C-alpha cells in the first residue's frame, strides 16, 4: 500500500466502481479485494469491505461503508485530456454508464463520484491570464462538456 492513498467511500459498490475506472482510464488497475472478517453495521462477514485500486496513476482504496455518507463536489478526480477525442471518450464513458452531466467540464459517475474532464488547452488558457484567460473562462462557463475548438477560438480572441 502506498504511503498516501485516497480513500473513497461507497455504499456497497466499491469493486464495481474500481473495475469501471480500470477499464476507462489508462494507468489504472484493481488490486486487492479485501473481504470483511466479521459482520459490521452495513454488511456481513465475507462482503467486499475494501478494494485497492489505481486511477490514472493515483493510488486509492474504495471502502464499502454503507449509505451514511454521500459524495459531493467537494472532492473530485480531475483528468487532463489532450484533445476533443480524449475528452469525449472519458465524458461519454462516465455519463453513458449511468452518470450525469454537470457544468464546466464536471460530471458524476453512477456512484456519485465527481469528475472534472479538463482539456489541457483550457488549463493553459486560464494560467496565461489576461484577456485570453477571461475569454476562455467565459466560454467554459456556458458549457457542460468542454468543447476544445471553442476554447481554442476564445484563446485567439
Question: Would you write up a description of this structure?
Answer:
- This protein has 2 domains: 1-69, 2,3-Dihydroxybiphenyl 1,2-Dioxygenase, domain 1, CATH 3.10.180.10; 71-156, Roll (2,3-Dihydroxybiphenyl 1,2-Dioxygenase, domain 1), CATH 3.10.180.
- It has a 4-stranded mixed sheet.
- α3 crosses α4 and α4 packs antiparallel against α5 (148-156).
- The mean pLDDT is 96.
- The protein has 5 helices and 8 strands.
- By secondary structure, it is an alpha/beta fold.
Proportion in helices = 25-40%
CATH class call of the largest domain: Alpha Beta
| Biggest pleated-sheet summary | 4 strands, mixed
| Low-confidence residue ranges | none
Tertiary shape: elongated
Structural class: alpha/beta
* Beta fraction: 25-35%
CATH superfamily of the largest domain: 2,3-Dihydroxybiphenyl 1,2-Dioxygenase, domain 1
How is the largest sheet built, in terms of strand order? 1-4-3-2
SSE string: EHEEEEHEEEHHH
Number of helices: 5
- Any idea of the CATH topology of the largest domain? 2,3-Dihydroxybiphenyl 1,2-Dioxygenase, domain 1
Number of strands: 8
Amino acid at each position: 500500500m502506498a504511503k498516501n492513498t485516497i480513500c473513497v467511500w461507497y455504499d456497497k459498490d466499491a469493486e464495481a466502481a474500481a473495475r469501471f475506472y480500470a477499464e476507462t482510464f489508462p494507468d489504472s488497475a484493481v488490486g486487492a479485494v479485501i473481504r470483511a472478517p466479521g459482520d459490521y453495521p452495513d454488511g456481513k462477514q465475507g462482503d467486499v469491505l475494501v478494494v485497492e485500486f489505481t486511477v490514472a496513476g493515483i493510488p486509492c482504496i474504495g471502502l464499502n461503508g454503507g449509505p451514511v455518507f454521500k459524495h459531493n463536489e467537494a472532492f473530485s478526480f480531475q483528468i487532463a485530456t489532450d484533445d476533443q477525442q480524449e475528452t469525449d471518450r472519458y465524458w461519454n464513458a462516465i455519463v453513458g454508464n449511468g452518470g450525469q452531466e454537470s457544468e464546466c467540464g464536471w460530471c458524476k459517475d453512477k456512484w456519485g463520484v465527481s469528475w472534472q474532464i479538463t482539456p489541457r488547452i483550457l488549463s493553459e488558457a486560464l494560467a496565461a491570464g489576461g484577456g485570453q484567460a477571461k475569454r476562455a473562462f467565459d466560454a467554459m462557463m456556458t458549457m457542460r462538456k468542454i468543447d476544445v475548438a471553442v476554447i481554442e477560438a476564445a484563446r485567439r480572441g
